[in-house]
Fold:
Amino acid sequence: MPNLISRVVLMLLVFAPPLYAGITSMDNQSNGFESQGDFLLDLDQFNENDGIQEGLGPVYNAQSCGGCHGNTIAGGGSQITELRAGRLYGTLFTEHPGGSLINDRALDPSIQETVSILDTVIALRLSLNLLGDGYVEAIPDSEFTRIQAAQPYSQRGTIILVPVLEAAPNVTRIGRFGWKNQHASLLSFSADAYRNEMGITSPLQPTENSSNNRSVAAYDAVPDPEDAAVPGHPFGGAVEAFTRLMRSFRVPEPAFQGADARLGEMQFNSVGCKNCHTASITTAPSYTALNGGTFIVPSVLANKTIHPYSDFMLHDIGTGDGIVQNGGAATRNMLRTAPLWGLRTRTRLMHDGLSFTPRDALLRHAGQAASVVQSYNALTATQKTLLLAFLDSL
Structure:
């Protein structure tokens, strides 16, 4: 009888329906938020290299969004990292002069940013996957608090409220984008990345970055904001195009979920990975007003159960980068739980890109995840193989 039960369970696992229902793609297809034609137009802008005439720099990291977000299709992650730095005096963190972001490129050698000998905190941040982010934006705040309340106390995520730049003053929402959950809306996130990674200002981020706290005005002839408001697009034509595109990205499509992978998910759950890498989250109902009323959830993003394998909260797992952003001093060594969808397309893992296999990344976990590593180490060799097969299928 036990063997018969095992075979039945195995058949159910093999022939179980896919985790996703019609919202996955790895072939540059719109999820319906915008038409396929408009999606491709916005995709061209996402991949287009900006130059000096568009306001590039004068300190920056890349010439296009696609340059950092493009594996295996536009919107995916990459091997590109950004550099951040600051100073720690006791428990007080102070940003590097001019901000913690150290731009790796400049239009003139005299304004190249560099890490200072006084900087005691230096960190790398791997470019993030953007696929599926429209669904993440559509998650209501109540879903995060529900997930948090169900987590074991020792592994409970930290929720922070962050400003929604396009909304009325003092409007905040639960952060979910960026390694430190710096943003809650994709419009805010787009404007931030356009200025900080490409040096192009917009109405939401109208002030140029400095170079080690020195003005770069002499090297930038394009008036700010460089991505200016135009009729119908008050936040900048490019920033709004990037936002529409991200809301239109489908989620990363998993590989075929064979028996080994599905049995491996059981091991993944049994050791406690599921406590932070949440398998299923449901988006808000249609017509829900989010981001201070500036974004109304359309039906294509509404009431969708997604499987990101992340709670999108901050945790201290012993690998924190030491940088303080919107969350305050208590979050210095916390990072957002990395979503695992699309994991098999990544060659560099964790926030710094310095882990190269899922096993290496798992074994780096400590702090709030220390018990998970202990449980993993206690598995049999077969159980470990199954768990890793599951991760390789995502």
